[in-house]
Amino acid sequence: MKQAMIIINPTSGKEDAPQHVRNVEEVLHDAGYNVTVKETAKEGDATHFCITACENGYDLVVSIGGDGTLNETINGLSDQDPRPKLGVVPLGTVNDFARALQIPLNPAEAIQTLTSTRVKNVDMGRLNGRVFANVVATGSLAETLSSVSSDDKSKFGALAYFKEGIKDLRNPAQPLVIHHDGETWEGHSPLFLAALTNSVGGFEKLAPDATVDDGLLHCFIIKDLTVLNTITIGISLLVGSLKDHKDVVYFTAKNLSVHSVESVRTNVDGEEGPPLPIELSIIPRHIQVIVPEED
Ligand SMILES: Nc1ncnc2c1ncn2[C@@H]1O[C@H](COP(=O)(O)OP(=O)(O)OP(=O)(O)O)[C@@H](O)[C@H]1O
C-alpha cells in the first residue's frame, strides 16, 4: 500500500486546519494510501516529520497550513533521496505557493486535487544552507512587512502590506550590495526581493514573468520610496508592471549574494529569515508537486 504523511499546523491562518484533516484522510485513503497524521507543535516540527517520511519511503507528504509550514516541509524534503511527492492544502493567510500553482485556495477544493495525476517539477531556491519556495526579501520595508499581523492579513489580505508599508516611509533605506552573474548593484534600497513565483505577499502579478519551473530568481530592487512613488509603485504592483517602474531595477539570476555594512534582516517565505549577508541560488525543477488536472 502507498504511504502518505499529512503534516498539519493547527495555528495556521484562521486556525481551522484540524477540521480538514478527516476529509484529507478520507480522500487519500480512497486513493489507496495508508495515512499518518502529524500535527506540528512548534517551529521545526514540519521539517523533522518530513525527514522521517523520506527515510521511511513515503510516497506522498501533504502540507496543511500556510507558506511557513510549507517552507519547513520543503526543508525536510529537499536534501532527501528519494523524495515523496508534495501535496498542498493552503490554510495560511497568504498562500503564495498555492496561488502560483493554481491550487485552489478553498480548502475543500484543494483537498480534492490531492488525487490529481498531474505533477509539476518545481524550482526551489537555496538561501545559505536552507531552501525556500517563494521569496526572499530584505531591506527596511521587508522588516516592516514582516511585522504585518496574521489578523491584519486575514482581514485585509494583500492590502495589509500597503497599510504597513506606508509607515516605512519614515525609515531610511539601507545600503545594499548585490552581486549577480558578474554584475554588481550598489546603493540604498528599502526593499530587495528575489521571487521564484509570480505571487508574492498575495500579489499575484508582482512577478508576472516568473514561472515555477523557469530556473530563475526574479529580482526587484526598489531604489527609492517617497509618498508619491509609493502610490505609483503600488499601482504597478497591482497591474503587473513593477519591473518597468522608473524607481525599480529588475533582473533575473541563477546565483546572487546580498551584503550590507549595516545589520539588515531578511524575510523568507513570509517568516523571519537570517540577517545579511546571504547567498541565493536556484535548484531547478527540484520538488514534485501535485497540481490540479488541466481543464
Ligand atoms: N503548534 C504551533 N504553534 C505555534 N506555531 C507553530 C505551531 N506549529 C508550527 N508553528 C509555526 O507557525 C509558523 C507559521 O505557520 P504558517 O505559515 O503555516 O501559518 P500562517 O503564518 O498563518 O500563514 P501565512 O504564512 O500564509 O501567513 C510556521 O513557520 C511554524 O514554525
TrEMBL record:
Keywords: ATP-binding, Kinase, Lipid biosynthesis, Lipid metabolism, Magnesium, Metal-binding, Nucleotide-binding, Phospholipid biosynthesis, Phospholipid metabolism, Transferase. Pfam families: DAGK_cat (PF00781), YegS_C (PF19279). The keyword Protease does not apply. Its cofactor is Mg(2+). GO terms for cellular component: plasma membrane. The keyword Nucleus does not apply. One of its GO terms (biological process) is phospholipid biosynthetic process. GO terms for molecular function: ATP binding; ATP-dependent diacylglycerol kinase activity; metal ion binding. Gene3D superfamilies: 2.60.200.40, Probable inorganic polyphosphate/atp-NAD kinase, domain 1 (3.40.50.10330). Residues 1-131 form the DAGKc domain. Coiled coil: none annotated. InterPro entries: ATP-NAD_kinase_N, Diacylglycerol/lipid_kinase, Diacylglycerol_kinase_cat_dom, Lipid_Phosphate_FormReg, NAD/diacylglycerol_kinase_sf, YegS/DAGK_C. Belongs to the diacylglycerol/lipid kinase family. PANTHER family: LIPID KINASE YEGS, SPHINGOSINE KINASE. This is YegS/Rv2252/BmrU family lipid kinase. It comes from Paenibacillus monticola.
